[in-house]
Amino acid sequence: MVQPSEAPPAGTAGADGTHQLRRGSLGVFGIAFFVVSAAAPLTAMAGGAPTAIAFSNGAGVPAAYVLVVLMLLVFSVGYTAMARHHTSTGAFYSYISRGLRQQAGGAAAFLALLGYNAMQIGLYGLFGVAMSGFLADPVGVEVPWWVCSFAALALIAVLGYRQVDLSLKVLSVLVVAEFVVVLVLDAAILAKGGTMATGAPISASPFGWDALTGLGGGALALAVLFNSAAFVGFEATTIYSEEARDPKRTVPRATYVAVLTIGVFYVFTTWLMVNAGGLDGVQKFISDLGPDPTVMLFAIGDAYVGTGFVQVMSLLFATSVFAALLAFHNAVARYLFALGREGLLPDTLGRTHAVHLSPHAGSVSQSALAAVVVAVFVVTDRDPVTQLFVWLTNLGTLAVLVLMAMASFAVVAFFRRHPDLDANLGRTLVAPLVAGVALVAAVVFAYISFDDLIGPQGWLTWGLPLLVPVAAVLGVVAAGVLRGRDPQRYAEMGRHRDI
Description:
By secondary structure, this protein is mostly helical. The chain has helices spanning 28-39, 41-55, 61-83, 92-100, 102-139, 145-161, 164-192, 194-197, 209-213, 217-229, 247-277, 282-288, 296-304, 307-341, 360-379, 384-417, 425-448, 450-454, 460-485, 487-491. α1 packs across α7 (164-192). The radius of gyration is 22 Å and the shape is globular. Residues 1-18 have low confidence and may be disordered.
C-alpha cells in the first residue's frame, strides 16, 4: 500500500508497478466543472425537465427537484466525511471496498463500469441527433446522426488520452456557455411574465403542497426518479481526488459546490419553465407541441427571446451533450485505471501515459467500447434517441442509484470500524443511514417503474434492469478470482492511499 508521504513522483511507477495520475492539477472549481459537465445543465433543462413535467407531477416538478437536492445533500454529508479520510480515483468502488469489504467492492466496481459506460455511450445518440439537427436547420447541411456521433467520439478519444488540464479547458468554455444561455432565457421570463409572455404574474405555487403531490404519490415518485437522473455525475468528485490539490478539502468542497450549483439552477429554471407554459395547463402545453416533450424549452425560447436565440440554444444543446460525454469518458477511464491498478482488471489499465500522466489505456478502452456499441445501434437501425439514449441512460441511472445506496451504508460501516476518525454521529451515522434508506426506496421504485422510464419495450423492460445484478455478480466473482490469484492485492482492495 502506498501512503501519501511515500508516494512516488507523478507519472512514475510505484512499488507495485502501477503509475500515478497527474497530481495537484485540479482545484475545487476544476473538479466542479467536470461534475457539472456530466450533469449537463442545458441538456437536463431541454430534455429531462420537460419529460418529467409531461409524464409525472406537472407543475410540481420544481418542488420535486428541491426534494432531490435535499436527498443528495444528505447523501453528501457522509460521502464527503469519508472523502476527508480516504483518497482514491476508485470512488464508489474504493469506498464500498473499505466499508462493506472486498466482495461488495468487486460488485461496486462492475456496477460502476456498467453505469458510467451506459450513461456515456447512450449520450452519443442524443448528441448525434442534436448536432445533426443543428447542421440541417440553421446551417443547411444534411449529416446523418451517426456521423456526428463518431466525430464526437474521435475528438473525445483524443482529449481523454491527453492530460486532464486540456479536457478541463474545453469543459470550462462549454459549461459557462450553456449556463449563460439558460440564464438569459430565465431573465426574459422574469421580465415578460408567465404563460408564454402574456404578462401573467410569476407565481410561487409550483412549490406548494398541491403542486408537489400533483397527480398522486406515484407521479411524485416518478418525478423524483426523473429528476435524480439529471444529477447523475455529481458524485464523481471523488474520482478526481488523486489529481486534486489538497484532496481532503478540495473534494468535499467541490461536491457541495456541484450539488448546490446544479440544484439551484434546476429548481430556478424549471420554476420559470412551468410558469411560462402555464401553471394550470403546462402538461397540455407540452402535449400540444407534439410527441417530443424536449421541444418545450426551445418553444419558450422562441416566444420570449426570438428565433436567433433558439438557434444559438440548439448549438449549445449539442455542445452541452458533448461536455457530458467528455466528463463521463474521463470518469470511466479513471475507474478502469483504478481497477487495473488493483488487479480486478488487466494490469495494463492501471498505468498512466509517460508524458500526459493520463489513464490512457482506460481512455482507449472506453472509446473502443463506445464505438462498438454505437456501431451496433447504427447497423441494426435503432433509433438514436428513444432507444440508444433512453435505454442506456436509464440503465446507467439505475446502476448509479444502486452504487449510491451501497456507498451510504459503506460510510456507516467504515466509521463504525474507525470511530476515532470522526466522532460526529450526525455525518457518520445518521445522514448516511437516512440517505441509504431513501436511495434504496428510489432503486425499488426505479425497478417497478422501468417501463415508464423507457416505454413499453417487451423483454427489455426486465432485461435491461437485470444487467445491474448480473454486473454485481460478475464483480463478486472477479474479487474472488483476485483473492485466489493475489491475496495481498485482495486484502488491500480500495486502499491505494491513506489508511
